[in-house]
Design a protein that fits this description.
9-stranded antiparallel β-sheet, binds adenosine-5'-diphosphate, Rossmann fold, 384 residues, D-amino Acid Aminotransferase, Chain A, domain 1, Dna Ligase, domain 1, binds magnesium ion
Length: 384
């Protein structure tokens, strides 16, 4: 067991890293963040911040020397970085599981190999792969295999010709072509698995996206959004974690189509849709990440409240003037006593950039949902 005041390492300085820093510091740990951005939101509040590239061996050696254990907040860290660090210090997740989660072909191949339900797809590595795809995959979505997030690196395509044009626009980078599914809605589940194999699953969130970016998540207290389906989602997510011998916090996104679950993608870290755990659960997803990393017993994950979480993207900074960012009128949100406002302290607002979120809590879901939708409108978000 790694106990406070040990120093923990975090690869990545975004908001997920920032909440890890807060959770770790609350428990009395020190945190060292590696992020090339000197102004990163997690780096600014960490005990130590190294501003260097993720493959900078000097920086990594410094981390290995200073940290009792190291984890990451995003999947695009080079897997070699984790493999290098793991020679000297415990690292979660493993380089092997990160390599699967950071490359869509590898991820889908893993799901296929282990018989987990997923959307029909084809690997696209060359122009001839495009010409050979089954027409059953259309209409489809062409997704770059690496570095896509928040709907970036994805194009909707209706036939082989459009796919070829999109593939060329992606500079012939490896892609997957996925059948576009008629979604009833989406679910996600965050779990934490210990080295002993013990697993705790947070309640399932029902997710609503706009333009490929998470807009809001709905979580009924006690057991999650979708009753029967949430039990099935837990069973699938636990099997995935077991099949990967995963240790740490893992997020699983699902599509619901005709009442059936399909695994969309995996994230080897806490998840945006799990932000409600900060305010609605006995232990939040970031504290759980700290606990797993340090070999502490996992915390209780029950939700004590129903919750609706709404993302605040940079767009609302430009509501008054598309040329010039200005601070939204936070008083409008702060007026709701059951609303918890979170801002990540990012230095610059940009359209589509995740700047913060708010969560509305209540005993049952109806009232927080109504309040969240009203508050959303009050701060200038479009209807959903
Ligand atoms: P990322 O979250 O990494 O940007 P996803 O593959 O999760 O990429 O896609 C983002 C969102 O786009 C999904 O949550 C879903 O709303 C929509 N989407 C992605 N793939 C499909 C699909 N095959 N069918 C229907 N909708 C999809
Ligand atoms: Mg996704």
């Amino acid at each position: 067991m790694i106990l406070p005041p040990a120093t923990l390492g975090m690869l990545g300085g975004g908001q997920l890293g920032r909440y890890f820093v807060i959770a770790a510091q609350q428990l009395g740990y020190r945190v060292m963040v590696l992020d090339p951005d000197t102004n990163s939101t997690a780096g600014r509040i960490a005990d130590l911040h190294i501003a260097a590239a993720y493959d900078d061996r000097n920086a990594l050696s410094r981390m290995a020397n200073s940290c009792a254990a190291i984890t990451t907040e995003f999947e695009s860290v080079p897997a070699e970085t984790l493999a290098f660090l793991a020679q000297f210090v415990p690292v979660q997740p493993s380089a092997e599981t990160l390599a699967i989660c950071q490359e869509r072909s590898a991820e889908k191949g893993f799901l296929k190999e282990h018989g987990f339900p997923h959307a029909p797809y084809a690997d696209i590595r060359s122009e001839s792969d495009v010409l050979n795809v089954s027409t059953d995959l259309f209409p489809g979505i062409l997704k770059v295999a690496r570095f896509g997030y928040d709907g970036k690196g994805q194009v909707r395509v209706n036939d082989a010709e459009e796919t070829l044009a999109a593939f060329r626009r992606f500079k012939n980078e490896p892609c997957v072509l996925e059948k576009k599914m008629a979604l009833d809605y989406e679910l996600s589940l965050v779990l934490t698995r210990c080295a002993s194999g013990a697993v705790k699953c947070f309640p399932v969130a029902e997710n609503h996206h706009q333009q490929g970016i998470l807009d809001h998540s709905i979580v009924a207290a006690q057991g999650g959004a979708a009753g029967e389906l949430s039990i099935k989602a837990k069973a699938i997510a636990e099997k995935i974690a077991l099949a990967m011998a995963y240790v740490g916090t893992l997020s699983v996104e699902f599509f619901v189509v005709d009442g059936q679950l399909y695994v969309n993608e995996l994230a080897p870290r806490p998840h945006n849709s799990g932000h409600y755990t900060l305010d609605a659960c006995l232990t939040n997803q970031f504290e759980q990440q700290v606990r797993a990393l340090c070999g502490l017993p996992l915390g209780e994950v029950t939700a004590h409240s129903a919750a609706v979480m709404v993302n605040l993207l940079g767009d609302i900074w430009f509501a008054n003037n598309p040329e010039q960012a200005s601070e939204p009128d936070w008083e409008k949100l702060l007026a709701y006593p059951s609303l918890k406002l979170h801002l990540y302290g990012k230095s610059e607002a940009r359209p589509g950039r995740k700047m913060g979120h708010f969560t509305v809590l209540g005993e049952t879901i109806e009232k927080p949902y109504r309040t969240a939708m009203e508050a959303r409108k009050a701060i200038g978000l479009s209807d959903c």
